[in-house]
Amino acid sequence: MKKVRWGIIGCANIAKHSVIPGIQQSETGEVVAIASRGLEKAKETAEQLNIPVAYGSYEELLADPEIEAVYIPLPNHLHKEWTIRAAEAGKHVLCEKPLALNAEEAEEMVNACEKAGVILAEAFMYRYHPRYTKIQEIIQSGEIGEIRGIHGAFTFNNAGDSGNVRYKKEWGGGSLYDVGVYPISAARMLLEQEPTAATVHAFFSEEHDQVDMMASGLLEFEKGVALTFDCGMWAAFRNTLEIVGTEGRIEVPSAFITNKSEKDHFVVITNETREVEVPYLNQYSLQADAIGRSIRDGKELPFPSNDAVLNMKVLEACLTSAEKRSRVEI
């Protein structure tokens, strides 16, 4: 397979430390160019990561006919503009999560990519890891009985970095959009349904432009099943998921960020614990390969772009609930 030629729009840390190395280590992709708002920063990043071409503007990168796909790790409020501009330039798009600031924007982006005949994928790398296929198989086998509830947590403490883009309200900052998206998307994926209502309580910080620095939520699903979750950017690090059934439960100690030194996930049936081993794999490479095969072979993406629109509807409801301190139907 001829490798997909990727361009990177922006020099964010997630790009430099995770996504670019992931594409470079993938079977199907290579990073051929990177762009920043200034040429110096683009050149510096290109040199660090062995990327052949550096551009001093995003427009120059999109004008490069050699680039087939772009990854967009820009602040959330810029996702819509540059996804649509990339689509109009004929580039396939991997856009960082959350896809947009709201469902309406997300729908515009999906429509623009469909019109241009290009792929649009939301960068939820964890979903491409085979451990979630195994988890789904365990659930479907009936080993843990009927699902009664899911609990997810994703928290970290970066509050001291006051200039961080995560702390700009108008730019789509806040913990719900940054890390709450993970347990929310995981519950939707595992339950294979959409929630009907959201209730969220949040801590909005005056020191951080009134974004939600911590949020605790409840999403209502069918048959009395719920996702309870918490997410935060001013709390000790946690990265866990638990699926509770009538006969047992599944614990995922490192649910969204994989770590070579950590066990993968466990199944607990009454008092007996069974460890399920899954080899360590680079989730970012798996993500790039899924997109690469879709571009080259026309394979359907495991997660269609419209999934991002549905996820944004849930996120909007969560933020509205936190701001109004009330239950919001979705």
From TrEMBL:
Residues 4-122 form the Gfo/Idh/MocA-like oxidoreductase N-terminal domain. Pfam families: GFO_IDH_MocA (PF01408), GFO_IDH_MocA_C3 (PF22725). GO terms for molecular function: nucleotide binding; oxidoreductase activity. Keywords: Oxidoreductase. The keyword DNA damage does not apply. The keyword Metal-binding does not apply. Residues 132-251 form the GFO/IDH/MocA-like oxidoreductase domain. Belongs to the Gfo/Idh/MocA family. This is Oxidoreductase. It comes from Halalkalibacter akibai (strain ATCC 43226 / DSM 21942 / CIP 109018 / JCM 9157 / 1139) (Bacillus akibai).
